[in-house]
Design goal:
Length: 211
């Protein structure tokens, strides 16, 4: 593997470790909350304090309040919505004040805490969907994820292109047996694969309660 590739891998590792080290749980959404799924909210749990997260589907501003329609996700150890295909249901999160739709855009991830206040029925295509409505106390809008490529592989100066020590004629990596592999070694042989690594930055916006 060339020196240039080694340097690139080292830079990727340093950046990944640095970003991971600075990723913490925002203080505003820490604490203990009731384990209630957005898909299982009934009037009997109105008033319960919950902590939910997900992906913004849309937003609407009315009467000095911004309400977000959110596709819920499970939360990871940083209380950020996980990257997954499953969902716990949809919900509506409402917070007093103006929250610019150009910032809180469709696809952005957020985590909120607050109390359950109601169930609102809205159309999803031709289906009447029952949305639990959350009165938000604290809100975290997460930064957009950055993805880099991490390269995994190995290299060995004594491996020939056929994948084992000894090359074609049974020597130890050269064109023959001892001692010729010292004098005529194969070029360094490398194999491997690339995989995406998602970097998790700190929250972009943390909005505490109005208290």
């Amino acid at each position: 593997m060339s020196r240039e590739i080694h340097m690139r891998l080292l830079i990727i590792m340093i950046v990944t470790l640095a970003v991971s080290a600075c990723t913490t749980i925002p203080e505003e959404i820490q604490g203990t909350y009731q384990e209630i799924s957005p898909a299982r909210v009934e009037p009997g749990v109105f008033g319960s304090e919950v902590r939910w997260g997900g992906v913004i589907l849309s937003s609407k501003i009315s009467d000095n309040t911004t309400c977000f329609e959110v596709l819920s996700r499970n939360l990871d150890k940083y209380l950020r919505p996980k990257l997954e295909d499953s969902t716990l249901g949809r919900f509506i999160a409402c917070k007093p004040g103006f929250h610019d739709p150009l910032v809180f855009t469709k696809g952005r991830e957020l985590t909120v805490t607050g109390s359950l206040r109601a169930i609102e029925t809205r159309k999803v295509d031709d289906f009447d969907y029952r949305y639990p409505v959350l009165a938000v106390d604290d809100l975290v809008l997460w930064q957009k994820r950055r993805v880099v490529m991490r390269y995994r592989g190995y290299s060995d100066p004594f491996y020939g292109p056929w994948g084992w020590r000894g090359g074609y004629w049974g020597g130890w990596g050269g064109w023959g047996g001892y001692p010729y592999y010292y004098r005529h070694p194969f070029p360094r042989y490398t194999t491997g694969y690339a995989e995406p690594v998602t970097l998790l930055p700190n929250p972009a916006i943390v909005e505490p309660s109005e208290d």
